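Lecture notes, continued. The same structure-token format from the folding unit now serves as the input rather than the output. Read the line below as a description of shape only.
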């Protein structure tokens, strides 16, 4: 694929074996980027990459692991020829009320989202600043804007990603590196399919557009931020929520 918004660019997406991450990888490919799909399970990441075909590779990577994340950025440079786009997408939920949530539930969610995103931003920006160019996109959530009951861990982590995005954006802007975030609302993925159907329906009814979003609709905002169309945007937070919580 030679034409496209991202022709000749190399991109990494974490948590890309399924859901939003997979659709981000797919849309990056459709716009011409070579893509490295990273996920906990390397076989699933490789299978997802094979589905995209062409310049797509899959690899095992735990975003909470410092060595894995540094190796991921290095692998993009070695095997894709560079690192122009890095999407911190991997995520988990461990929902429970404050009464029932354990310290392990809290730590697991904060570690994957906050430490994982921080490690990704650090590894990617180290490569990009040398090349004086690059775009990092972090996946936050509207849960981090509004707070969702049962998600004190997740809302805290997703709000933290906004602060991290803005601080990093200020630090690396003069090196030609942009750092932005996307806040999806209710999106139909394996993560939300695990919700009780009545909770999903209640949340869907609260969306002004009266439907949940599709992963590809989140991917559109990510590709925009990754591309030169967003060349004067950094530290921004784009909401993709069908009008929810505007
Ligand atoms: P999914 O659960 O469908 O996919 C997440 C992927 O991340 C899975 O493949 C998962 O692997 C992987 N993953 C989990 N932990 C790690 C880790 N430590 N290292 C590497 N990969 C990991 O989630 P979604 O596609 O729904 O969510 C993607 C992102 O979007 C997340 O950050 C989520 O918080 C955010 N988001 C989602 C919304 C939604 O409505 N779906 C709304 C707002 C934000 P495994 O399956 O093996 O655990």
């Amino acid at each position: 694929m030679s034409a496209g918004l991202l022709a000749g660019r190399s991109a990494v997406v974490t948590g890309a074996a399924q859901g939003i991450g997979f659709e981000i990888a797919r849309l990056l490919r459709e716009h011409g980027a070579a893509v490295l799909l990273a996920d906990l399970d390397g076989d699933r990441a490789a299978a997802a990459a094979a589905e995209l075909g062409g310049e797509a590779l899959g690899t095992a990577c735990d975003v909470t692991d410092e060595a894995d994340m540094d190796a991921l950025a290095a692998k993009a440079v070695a095997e894709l020829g560079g690192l122009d786009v890095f999407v911190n997408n991997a995520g988990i939920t461990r929902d429970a009320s404050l009464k029932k949530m354990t310290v392990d539930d809290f730590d697991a969610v904060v570690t994957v989202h906050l430490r994982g995103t921080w490690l990704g931003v650090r590894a990617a920006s180290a490569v990009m600043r040398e090349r004086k160019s690059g775009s990092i996109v972090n996946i936050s959530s509207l849960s981090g804007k509004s707070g969702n009951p049962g998600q004190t861990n997740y809302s805290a982590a997703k709000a933290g990603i906004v602060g991290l995005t803005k601080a990093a954006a200020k630090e690396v802007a003069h090196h030609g590196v942009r750092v932005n975030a996307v806040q999806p609302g209710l999106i139909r993925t394996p993560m939300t399919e695990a919700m009780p159907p009545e909770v999903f329906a209640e949340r869907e009814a609260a969306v002004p557009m009266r439907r949940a979003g599709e992963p590809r609709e989140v991917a559109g905002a990510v590709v925009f931020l990754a591309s030169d169309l967003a060349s004067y945007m950094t530290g921004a937070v784009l909401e993709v929520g069908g009008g929810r919580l505007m």
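Point for the exam: The domain at 10-236 is CATH 3.40.50.720 (Rossmann fold).
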